[in-house]
Structure formats: structure tokens, C-alpha cells
Design a protein that fits this description.
The complex is a heterodimer of chains A (about 90) and B (about 400). Chain A has about 90 residues and is an alpha+beta fold. Chain A contains 2 helices and 7 strands; from the N terminus they run ββααβββββ. In chain B, about 35% of the residues lie in helices and about 15% in strands. Classes of the chains: A alpha+beta (about 90), B alpha/beta (about 400).
Chain lengths: ~90, ~400
Amino acid sequence: MAAVRIPPTLRAEVGGARQLEARGETVAEVLDDLVERHPALAAQLLAGGELAPFVNVFVGGEDIRTLDGTETHVRNGDSIVLLPAMAGG
Amino acid sequence: MAGYRELLARVRAEIDEVSTVEARELHRRPDAPLFVDVREPDEWEEGHIPGALYTGRGRLEQRIEGFVPDKSRPLVVYCSAGSRSAFAAKTLEELGYENVVNLAGGFNDWKRNGFELTIPRVLSAEQRSRYSRHLLIPEVGEDGQQRILDARVLLVGAGGLGSPASLYLAAAGVGTLGIVDADVVDESNLQRQIVHATDRLGEPKVLSAKRTVEALNPDVRVVPYQERLTSENVERILADGWDVIVDGADNFPTRYLVNDASVWHGIPVVHGSIFRFEGQVTLFQPGVGPCYRCLFPKPPPPELAPSCAEGGVLGVLPGIVGSLQANEALKLILERGDSLAGRLLLFDALGTTLDEVTVRRDPDCPVCGEHPTITEYVDYVEFCNSVSLG
């Protein structure tokens, strides 16, 4: 199980939760698990079935683009941050 | 009991001394010792040895360990003629400093020999009083305060983030604050935009901010730009010369524009962004760390990135995030501490947590990467609207 931090822009899609537990060996599987339980997330996270380019995912504080992308291995207890850009100031 | 002359002679016999000619040779070396000036403030203000640390004799024992924690660091202590500094050198040895020498002949002899001097710019009595709490901090001190007074910071946005950032930077004494904002003060701003006030409704934000800031600190000159930052005016505004940009914009096109301009001009950007209960803060420093496009190559489509006007924001949140931005800007000015370059802070006001993720430079970044593909300003509104969910 990994703890996934849900950013404020996505909380409406998951019933207001700030953090969710999700299963999966890779980032892709973790996201699949989340989307399966909260289908509304698909429109926000995915583009053409892939992780949308404007969604940043960090595993253990590192950007998965600098690791193995959505194939990045997720260990039990890892913390995952979904990080969208925010424009507000 | 020993008289003064006897005591001085005894102390001088117990310490090491160098002549001003020898001291000058030491001063020229790349590994020069630290010169410590123990004269009275008015003597220092009339000129001192370049790079010297001013502590004053009166508080030497109290303050030296804060300034010079490393007791093995070589020190050359001087006063005007070498007597007061002899006692100071003795005291420093008693405090555990291992490599202390007294400058025989002192500053008077140094000056008589025609050696290099620094005539310090001095703070006025009012400034000494106003910034006294900075002057007490070894990491700031008089040199640091002069740096702050000389600094030029450009604030993009005089809203939620720009309010606390401008107030704290002004209070700290940042000499010139540029503020770019096209808006006027609206009632809905006042729940968080503390640089404005109820009697300013309808007034341009840059002028309202200028009034508040200049009332807070007359040392600060505010340069108002009552316009939205665009590809057309950005070069003109940056030509005025800025050391740091504090990005408190409220939209993606401006943020990408600020990024590209800052990379091309080599100006560090202290980034802050907020939504509801969450804030992000980092430093984008060209040549040192990643840029905004390394972190966010593409903005989210507008429907997925509501602004504070659409989604709301807790009033105190920009106070916290904007203050962190001011802190980062001051560290840059002072060249102190560990910067936020390459580190993105995530503040969650509901959990009261501060998390950090690592942001790395993208070698393929279209602006700061090895083979940039964007080398001039683009239509940023068009760029931000062209992203779709596919």
C-alpha cells in the first residue's frame, strides 16, 4: 500500500480526501487502482489512457520523470504526491 | 598592582604581533586571515582595512563567537595604534582562538603607508535604530543591511502573495521594489491582500501598495508598473534592472512569461502559488537549478486549474506562502543559508504540514535545457490554452 496525497483540485473527485491508500507495484498500477475506485479522477489524471503531461507524480520525493516514469516501482509504505501546477497568487 | 604601561607591556610580550607591512602581505593572500577591527564606531566609519570584521572592543567577548565560530581561523586584530588590540588579542586567545596576531602600529600605520582602505557607507542614526534587530544578527549585520538597502526586487502581482512579500521586504529595507499589477483594489481582495485597505477600493493596486509600503519604510522606493506583464512590456520592465523576481502572479500565461524572461536574463525567481489550503514555494535560479518549465512543462487545461477567484483561498495562506517568498528573496540578497533551488515546498494549511519534493533540471527543457527550442517570447495565452485533455 502506498499513501497518495490528493491535491486540492482533485479532492472533489475523491469525496474530499486529502490522502488515499492505494495498491500497486508501479505508479501505473497505483493510479489504476485509484481511478478504478474513483472513476471521476480519470478525466483529471489521464489523457488518452496515459498519465496527462501536466500532472507531476513524485515517489519518495522524486519526480517519476527522473525515475522510470509510470513504471517506477512503488514500495509498501511509499508516499506518492500528485502535484498539479497551481496558478493562484 | 601594575600600571597601564606595565600591563600593556606584559600583554604585548604574551601575544604575537605583525607589522603593517607583514600584515599587508597576509591581506593579499588568497587564504588571508580575517582582520578584526576593535576600534570605536566613529573610527571605523572614517575608514578600515578592506574585508575587516567590525566588532568593537566593548562587545568583543560577547559577539566574536557568533561572527567567527571556527577557533582555528587566523585572525589579525587591530585598533588605531596597536594597544587596545593587544588587549583584544589576549582576550581572544583566552577565548580559545588559536591563531591570533596583533597589528603593531595599528590602522594609523597602515594608513600612513598608503595601504588600501575601505571607507564604509554608513547607516544613518535612524537606520541604525530601524534595522537594529538585523544589525544584531551576525549573518546580516551592517554589510548585510547595506546589501538589502541596495537590493532591487521586482514583485509580479500585488495580490495575495505580493501583499505580505512587499510588506516584509519593505520592512527589511529593500531599497527598490518594483510592483507590476494592472488591477484595482476590489472588496473581495481585502480578506487576504493586506497591503491594501478599505479606503483604497477602486484605486490601482500598485499605487495602493506604494502608499502602504512607503508609509511603512521611507527608505524604500516603489516603482509602480500599472500594467499586466506581457511579451510586449517585459523587456522594458526588466531593463530597469532587478536582482530578484518574486512571482505572485495569478495566472499561468504570466508565470510562463516570467520564467522565460528570467532564464534569458539570468534573474532568480522566487515562486509561490496558492489554492484553497495549499501553497507551493520554490526558487528557480537560472544556471543553478531547474526552471518553471522543468517542473511544469505544460500548464493544466484551464478547467482543471481554477484560480483563487474561481476556487477560493484561505486568507492567511498567502500570508504564509508570501512570507516564505520574502524570506527566500532576503537569503538570496544576503547570500546566506540554503536556497530552495531544486526543492519545492508544499504547505498544507489544513494539516499544517510542510512537505518537500526534489525538482531537477530537465536537460531537454525547451527554455533552459541543453538545446532550447523556445528562444523568444511566444503568445503565452495561446500556449496555455492550447493544452487539451486529448
